[in-house]
Amino acid sequence: MNKKLIQENILLVILTKKLKQMKNIDFQKPVKLINPQQGEDELIFKVVSFNEVNNRCYIEPYNLKNWNKRLLPQELVSVDDIENV
Predict the structure, then answer these.
(1) Which strand ranges, in their side-by-side order, compose the sheet holding 45-51?
(2) Is position 51 within any domain?
């Protein structure tokens, strides 16, 4: 095998691993935490903003009870920590 073919195969393997690591999340749909803390079990969130460089996003709850709707708390989470509902 020549050197160029080996480099192309290595690149293909790296890209395949990266694609497997990427999560397929629809940011327009509600999300939930994969490992919620106590009291976060029933919360459903919406993604407010997403940073594709560091794979993090701000989420805020849809169904938080007894809270002022004009000033909802936001949480910075990794995309790996959320999933679509």
Answers:
(1) 75-78, 56-61, 45-51, 31-33, 82-84
(2) yes
- Nearest partner of 46 among 67, 60, 64, 33, judged by Cα: 60
Distance, in Å, from the CA atom of 47 to the CA atom of 31, rounded to the nearest integer, reads: 7
Between 54 and 76, name the one with better pLDDT. Answer: 76
Note down the domain range covering 74: 25-84
Residue 19 lies in a domain: no
Per-residue pLDDT tens digits for 10-37 = 877 766 665 555 567 888 999 999 999 9
Q: The pTM is what?
A: 0.70
Token look-up 């790996």 returns 80
